């Protein structure tokens, strides 16, 4: 008897369904964006597949929410943007995904080709706009979206992660694509160990001889489960101090005496850490990606004393190393140290002095101001909290003061360093890790840029604590103007009553002007069922000489 092929209801699916189902199979449970007529079929398909479409107030914010979802789940972030203005609004967050190594799938809706020949309203070349920023841009083809989306997912996640764009014309989204379940996604690349040979011999010899080794851990750690543990094992077994970039903060818990904290954007911390790196006789760069670093990090150590293990070859040339591998961080560290006995690391005790000098440089000080705010919050933050911080003077100070127990506890934009990331990162973090307390620390300039996302917190019922430092100044830029002897221009603005704004948007609000009031407001906010805004009014010029 011949079995007739039957097309079941489940098989009569569209290319939009294929995309949605494959994303679901890749672990995606939330997509973020602002709808438009050109993405309606996709949004409906996402919801059919079990992926909730989350409305943001701006596409840029939606992209940061998607980034936070990736941090929480390991599945790529998904941003949906409509034709023209939608994708134009998303450009900043796509650039961020490129520079901060975020696997972000950006799907834009597009009008039909035939229509575009004679119709130009809102129409622009999405692929041409995004191509310089993405790892790839696909134009979706009717009936062939399953393999395309699988490739896009893999490409976004493969080292180093980054954004991938899919341009989806309306007729393609609606085209039939039966059997959208498809073959399984290619497994993640296994990250190899360095091959045996003269390079490994040399690195092992450098390791065996080292008396003053330092590990410098970077953002590749975020993309390799187990890498932070390998850093910890090596540090503990050989007494090696660990410095990190901002993204890798917590590679070694920062209350560990061997932790030298996070670095990269603060000249004040550079003044302490760079001399130690120059004094080291071995710098082990573990997943170090210099995209996060300022110019002070140009050739910061003698290359003959550096060994580099990273997920991708360095093409930036900001730093150099005698031996350099593209490989897994854990496998690389183990290969270098395997079987070698611990040497007496830093017999002169310099790392402990550097740690103490860093603590002194970023001490709270006696007077109320941003340093006190950061110290109060850091001391009170619950274990396992996820904190997000925006770009500006407040971020640099917070990153130096904040103690992280694991990478991913502090989310920020440290590659692109864009304003407008912290509030949407907090939305995405709380949505996808509801059990974790989520704290957003933000400057008033950055909050003004993203204020609408407080309404997103309300709509999604997310009890995030937002602490805004209110000084009526784009203070990082004001500091630069003053340092260059320029008169202030374009940096001062009127302050708003953010506590009242929070209440108007359905949250709680408090204004504080000293440490006891901050402590009380923070404790209350952490226990509150909805979102809270604590406006910490700080004196003008409060960051001067502190970052
Ligand atoms: C989108 C964007 N625009 C401009 C800048 C330049 N910039 C960096 S920090 C900053 C000031 C941020 O002000 P605020 O949020 O008040 O933080 P503060 O520096 O006062 O701590 C500006 C304008 C940027 N990084 N990103």
Number of strands: 18
Give the number of helices: 21
Helix proportion: 25-40%
The side-by-side strand order for the widest beta sheet comes to 2-1-3-4-6-5
**Radius of gyration (Å):** 24 Å
Question: Can you describe this structure?
Answer:
The chain is an alpha/beta fold and about 550 residues long. The protein is built from 21 helices and 18 strands. The chain has helices at about 15-25, 40-50, 60-75, 85-100, 115, 125-130, 145-155, 170-175, 200-210, 225-240, 265-280, 330-335, 350-360, 370-380, 395-400, 420-430, 445-450, 455-460, 475-485, 500-505, 515-525, and strands at about 30-35, 50-55, 75-80, 105-110, 135-140, 165-170, 215, 240-245, 260-265, 280-285, 305-310, 325, 385-390, 410, 440-445, 465-470, 510, 530-535. The strands form 3 sheets. A 6-stranded parallel beta sheet has the order 2-1-3-4-6-5, with helices on both faces. α10 links the parallel β7 (about 215) and β8. The radius of gyration is 24 Å and the shape is globular. The protein starts with 14 loop residues before the first helix and ends in a 10-residue tail after the last strand. The model is unreliable at about 1-10 (pLDDT under 50). Thiamine diphosphate binds near residues 390, 393, 443 and 446.
Key features?
547 residues, alpha/beta, binds thiamine diphosphate, single chain, 6-stranded parallel β-sheet, 16% strand, 18 strands, disordered N terminus, globular
């Amino acid at each position: 008897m011949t079995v007739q092929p039957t097309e079941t209801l489940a098989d009569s699916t569209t290319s939009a369904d294929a995309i949605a189902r494959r994303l679901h199979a890749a672990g995606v449970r939330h997509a973020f964006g602002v709808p438009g007529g050109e993405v309606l079929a996709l949004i409906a398909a996402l919801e059919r597949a079990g992926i909730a479409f989350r409305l943001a107030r701006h596409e840029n914010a939606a992209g940061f929410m998607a980034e936070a979802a990736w941090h929480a789940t390991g599945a790529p972030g998904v941003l949906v943007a409509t034709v023209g203005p939608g994708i134009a609004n998303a450009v900043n967050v796509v650039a961020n995904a490129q520079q901060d190594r975020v696997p972000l799938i950006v799907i834009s809706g597009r009008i039909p080709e035939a229509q575009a020949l004679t119709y130009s309203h809102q129409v622009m070349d999405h692929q041409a706009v995004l191509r310089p920023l993405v790892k790839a841009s696909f134009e979706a083809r009717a009936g062939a979206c399953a393999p395309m989306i699988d490739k896009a997912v893999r490409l976004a996640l493969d080292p180093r992660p980054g954004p991938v764009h899919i341009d989806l014309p309306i007729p393609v989204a609606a085209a039939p694509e039966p059997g959208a379940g498809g073959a399984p996604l290619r497994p993640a690349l296994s990250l190899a160990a360095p091959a045996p040979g003269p390079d490994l011999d040399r690195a092992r010899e450098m390791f065996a001889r080292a008396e003053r080794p330092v590990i410098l851990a970077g953002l590749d750690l975020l993309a390799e489960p187990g890498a932070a543990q390998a850093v910890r094992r090596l540090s503990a077994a050989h007494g090696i101090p660990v410095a990190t970039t901002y993204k890798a903060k917590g590679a070694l818990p920062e209350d560990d005496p061997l932790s030298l904290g996070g670095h990269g954007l603060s000249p004040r911390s550079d003044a302490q850490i760079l001399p130690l790196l120059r004094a080291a006789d071995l710098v082990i760069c573990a997943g170090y990606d210099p995209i996060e670093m300022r110019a002070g990090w140009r050739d910061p150590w003698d290359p003959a004393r550096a060994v580099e293990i990273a997920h991708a070859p360095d093409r930036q040339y900001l730093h150099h190393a005698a031996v350099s591998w593209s490989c897994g961080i854990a496998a690389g560290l183990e290969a270098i140290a395997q079987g070698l006995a611990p040497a007496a690391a830093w017999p002169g005790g310099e790392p402990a002095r550097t740690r103490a000098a860093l603590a002194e440089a970023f001490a709270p000080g006696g007077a109320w101001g941003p340093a006190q705010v950061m110290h109060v919050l850091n001391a009170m933050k619950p274990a396992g909290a996820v904190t997000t911080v925006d770009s500006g003077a407040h971020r640099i100070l917070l990153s130096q003061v904040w103690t992280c127990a694991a990478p991913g506890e502090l989310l920020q934009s440290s590659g692109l360093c864009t304003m407008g990331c912290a509030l949407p990162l907090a939305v995405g973090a709380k949505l996808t890790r509801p059990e974790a307390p989520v704290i957003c620390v933000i400057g008033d300039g950055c909050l003004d840029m993203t204020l609408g996302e407080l309404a997103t917190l309300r709509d999604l019922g997310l009890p995030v604590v937002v602490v805004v430092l209110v000084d009526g100044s784009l203070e990082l830029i004001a500091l630069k103007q003053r340092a260059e002897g320029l008169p202030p221009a374009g940096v001062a603005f009127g302050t708003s009553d953010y506590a009242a704004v929070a209440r108007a948007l359905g949250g709680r609000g408090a204004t504080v002007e000293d440490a006891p009031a901050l402590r009380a407001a923070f404790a209350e906010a952490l226990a509150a069922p909805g979102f809270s805004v604590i406006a910490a009014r700080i004196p003008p010029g409060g960051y001067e000489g502190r970052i």
